[in-house]
Specification:
This protein has two domains: 102 residues, Winged helix-like DNA-binding domain superfamily/Winged helix DNA-binding domain (Arc Repressor Mutant, subunit A, Orthogonal Bundle), CATH 1.10.10.10; 138 residues, Endonuclease, Chain A (2-Layer Sandwich), CATH 3.30.870.10. By secondary structure, the protein is of the alpha+beta class.
Amino acid sequence: MDVREQLENIGIAGKRADVYLSLLQLGSGTALEIAASSGVKRPTVYDILTDFEAQGLVGTCYEGKRRLFVAKDPRMLAELQARRLDSIKAIMPQLSALYNLGPRKPRVSYHEGIGGLRKVSEDLLTVTSGEYFYFSSARDLLAKFGEEYLKSYVRRRVERGIWSNAIRMRHTEEPDAEYLAGSDKFKRRLRFLTRPVFEEVVCVYIYDEKVAIISGLKENYAMIIESRELAVLLKTIWQIVWEVAEEP
């Protein structure tokens, strides 16, 4: 694992990474010594170290008249990120309220090929409500994704505590697979329709404020539409169909 790359992921990049890693190696040193070790100019080093000190990543002490910068345990990085995450969580309700105030146009993302289809499928695992709703065919799902991927997907969904609410088209050759059945074990509620509703589409998913569509085998595309109004409409249709669908 590349340390510099991982530091960049948490906002310590470029010259800041040079200075931080040099100080960790030295243990302590003046701004001039750290500048010589890192190859970064002394005024820049001083500014970076002052910022690190404010974040709790670096300490200072004096040795005579010399001001030394002292590296703190790198585990302070984890504490810093934890504090930042707590701050984000604390203000998230206000940020979400501001986000929901303004008018928003629906957003559509389009994906092709099996990789794109799986990307849409994986997006279902980000659902915040703890459940999603869909129309589908287990036979077509198997044909589209394959048994190995579906088993892995169901396992990860169950591990995250996400419920799947399915209205499926009943086929004479319905797959006999426990992990596709309706049960508390696999966190799936299931009912059936006796005749196809979506002939050319494998799946229609409704979750949070999104609608996802996965096409049939011929066109091989998928899309995610972010629209609260569309999601509410299709959720209402789903609930109406659920009332008349057959139990397993």
